[in-house]
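Example record

The entry below shows one chain as it appears in the dataset: sequence first, then structure tokens.
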Amino acid sequence: MVIILINNSYKVINVQISALQFFIISILFVVGDAILYVPSLIVQGASHTIWIAGIIGIAEAVLLSLLYALVSQQFDNKGFFPYLELTYGRWLGRVLFLLFLLYVMVDVILMIFEMGSFMVTVIMPETPLEAIIMVFLLVVIIGARLGLETLSRAAEILFPWFCVFFFLLVCLNLPNAKFENMQPFFEGGIHTIFKGNVSLASYIFESIILIVIFPHIREKDQATKAYIKGITIGVTLLVIISLLSLLVFGLSTLKMEFYPSYLLGQTLEFNFFSHVEVIMAVIWFISLFFKVAICFFVSAQGISQLIKVQDYRIVTFPIGIFLFALSFICIPSSMYLIHFINSTWLSYSVTYGLFFPLFLLAVELIRKSRKSNSVNGS
């Protein structure tokens, strides 16, 4: 369902997706842009202990998705924004929701610039960065305007292709894997493992954005399981591709490459088939599109509720123009993007991905405790 404001009261419009579709969206959302960058980011901190950092990351994915699911269960089909307004009051609820939307839009800005930077650097060096971002944003806007149901059905159709290409990429690179590249196993101790793990955790925190989708799920009893399984499988895929990159290239090469997962496709050579790296590009484009489209949909729907616009589609093009301009104002270069991700994005993500849901859950528990005490007292 979608909840919109009509004459100062919230009205419900049936827009629902299945638990299976939510499961697929959760996987694609976690993989998103991370599949291209995570191997390089983890190895900068974890070195040869990348596999340990990955196992810890999978455990974190289970715990965090459970936390987010607990928060979403408090909505009671009201929707995220109405819940904040009813729980924290009109002004504080709006401030909290606006801060959350700011986080979502910053994430969109980072992803569209990442996509443009990758295309200009690796695939289409003679094409202007502005043109690539503009075309990609236009496709995202069209997808968001078609609605959540259409995006979910498209994800359901493309997900098998995503799985096939991922399976091919992994299997075709296995003969090149050298297990001695994992040695020494515990190099650097706990400190190194922690440094590598936080890079992966910063991407897991982004999955809190999906709590906005929970009220739209048809099978309420299966939503939490679908969410936890989807997030966990998505993180597992990131760990697999990171570990494979280490096994194939070794630590020294991996530290020098910013797109090691894309390089996995470039190393494959067949007499009858060239440009195998396109397999990696297809995997990334599929997951990235759905992650950006879902974030854009959440932003458009949230802003329309804040400014009391009945149809969120009205604000999609203004938001697109705004984000297009901000992507160049906030991120002047690819080097600045790398510096921002390494130095700032973790603290920004942990604020919304850990402290924010813990705050919401703590307040809800206090409210319920006071209610039960007042009932018992009367």
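Notes for this example: The beta strands are 2-6, 9-13. Residues 220-256 form the longest helix (37 residues).
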